[in-house]
Amino acid sequence: MTTERTPADGSPLSIDELRGAFDAVTEAVFVHRPDGTIVDVNAAAADLYGHSPSALRDGAVETLSAGVDPYTHEEAVRRIERTAETGEARQFEWRARDSDGARFWVSMKLSRIDTDDGPRVLAVVRDIQGRKEAERRFQTLIENLPGVVYRCRNEAGWPMEFVGGRCAELTGYESETVESGAVSWGLDVIHPEDRERVDAEVQTAVDEGSAFEVTYRIRTADGSIKWMWERGQHLDGPTEGPEYLEGFITDITDRKRYEDRLEAQRDDLELLNQVLRHDIRNDLQLVTAYADLLADECDDSQIQEYIDTISEHAEHTVELTTTARDMANVLISDSDPESRRLRPVLESEVDEIRSGYPEAVVRCESIPDVEVVADDLLGSVFRNVLKNAVQHNDKDVPEVSVGIERAEGAVRIRVADNGPGVSDAQKESIFGKGEAGLDSAGTGIGLYLVRTLVDSYGGDVWVEDRDDLGEGDGPGAIFVVELPTES
């Protein structure tokens, strides 16, 4: 079907009528003969290309095309000829060239009109260089994203209408291959074992009107398996048309492997924790019990010394398993600290120290009934600090004093002893792993556990010098545990 533009009475337009019409148009307008030569232009066309109207009309300008395939003068002429022949309007984007030789993008619409001098082709030209530059910047942004940006119809197989970014790098398939439907993301790329789950999760989110996040495996073009993370949302399509999804997909294979390793390590820690809690502790308690029975029945001082050594080392190993068990719990736990009452926890640990070390003098001032940010392992913090004050004490009668200070948004528990003190060089390193050493009565990880737990609560722990002891009593040390309080 041809399209011919003529006046309302059906007579052909005159050139003067045509010029009067397009001179009032702000967009660039060219009038061509069917062979492509320019018959007339308006002022906007001259301004756009940087040539005078007369130079354009008399053919002094050799070409307005970019001169590179397919944006050549010859190709432009062929398009004008086809429009003149068929009468069908054509619209396309074109690379043009101005008077300085600079290339720029235009949108060009061709249509045939009949004049009293015969058929002509009207070309309406718009400068779209700004839009093209914005598109190029957007495309560069997409290409630099670590994944795939997509828009697809919300139908079986997720037919893709736009795929940008690193599709080939992630999947082995070019974006055009996925957009054309030759490869279906939902049916060919997503792993068969994950398709049903992913579809269900996406549709649930769509039905609820929320964005969706899914993880799944894909099978790449070479058959390898990768893990993907996808975040997307639902878009309403045209009336009576399809619904759409748009989103971003990125490779999380390395992260997934790391998470799997962490999960395996967590399982191993849970097994270790179970062994520490039950098997080793039960065996050691049995050793201790039999050692106590032997001690009651034995009168030989030499053998009694051996039995005491067995009991001492068995008790030390029980203590070690307790601390190791608590450390395993720290590594396994994925819960966040919450509110805990300070008084019952601290009182319980003070009582345990008094019972376990009857030779020591343990004083504790009144404990305020405050709630601190902590978890179920809070008791382990005080147990290790208190034991450290007794076990590393070189006095015949170890003395330990527990004081409490209120601070803004926090409470400080100060555990002072009359032991040898801590040198300035050790005040920070003493909280490191294994700082106690092999010859120490301590476990070597007790204070490290204290620092780990207190840090997780958002608190702090440090050592101060004690300056209230009498001459000759040794320097002593104060371990300060600061815990945030619940507001």
Automatic annotation (TrEMBL):
<protein>
    <recommendedName>
        <fullName>histidine kinase</fullName>
        <ecNumber>2.7.13.3</ecNumber>
    </recommendedName>
</protein>
<dbReference type="InterPro" id="IPR000014">
    <property type="entry name" value="PAS"/>
</dbReference>
<dbReference type="InterPro" id="IPR005467">
    <property type="entry name" value="His_kinase_dom"/>
</dbReference>
<dbReference type="InterPro" id="IPR052162">
    <property type="entry name" value="Sensor_kinase/Photoreceptor"/>
</dbReference>
<keyword id="KW-0808">Transferase</keyword>
<dbReference type="Pfam" id="PF00512">
    <property type="entry name" value="HisKA"/>
</dbReference>
<dbReference type="InterPro" id="IPR003594">
    <property type="entry name" value="HATPase_dom"/>
</dbReference>
<dbReference type="InterPro" id="IPR001610">
    <property type="entry name" value="PAC"/>
</dbReference>
<dbReference type="InterPro" id="IPR036097">
    <property type="entry name" value="HisK_dim/P_sf"/>
</dbReference>
<dbReference type="InterPro" id="IPR013655">
    <property type="entry name" value="PAS_fold_3"/>
</dbReference>
<dbReference type="InterPro" id="IPR003661">
    <property type="entry name" value="HisK_dim/P_dom"/>
</dbReference>
<dbReference type="Pfam" id="PF13426">
    <property type="entry name" value="PAS_9"/>
</dbReference>
<feature type="domain" description="Histidine kinase">
    <location>
        <begin position="275"/>
        <end position="487"/>
    </location>
</feature>
<feature type="domain" description="PAC">
    <location>
        <begin position="90"/>
        <end position="140"/>
    </location>
</feature>
<dbReference type="GO" id="GO:0004673">
    <property type="term" value="F:protein histidine kinase activity"/>
</dbReference>
<dbReference type="InterPro" id="IPR004358">
    <property type="entry name" value="Sig_transdc_His_kin-like_C"/>
</dbReference>
<feature type="domain" description="PAS">
    <location>
        <begin position="134"/>
        <end position="209"/>
    </location>
</feature>
<feature type="domain" description="PAC">
    <location>
        <begin position="212"/>
        <end position="264"/>
    </location>
</feature>
<dbReference type="Pfam" id="PF02518">
    <property type="entry name" value="HATPase_c"/>
</dbReference>
<dbReference type="Pfam" id="PF08447">
    <property type="entry name" value="PAS_3"/>
</dbReference>
<dbReference type="InterPro" id="IPR036890">
    <property type="entry name" value="HATPase_C_sf"/>
</dbReference>
<keyword id="KW-0418">Kinase</keyword>
<dbReference type="InterPro" id="IPR035965">
    <property type="entry name" value="PAS-like_dom_sf"/>
</dbReference>
<dbReference type="InterPro" id="IPR000700">
    <property type="entry name" value="PAS-assoc_C"/>
</dbReference>
<keyword id="KW-0597">Phosphoprotein</keyword>
<feature type="domain" description="PAS">
    <location>
        <begin position="14"/>
        <end position="87"/>
    </location>
</feature>
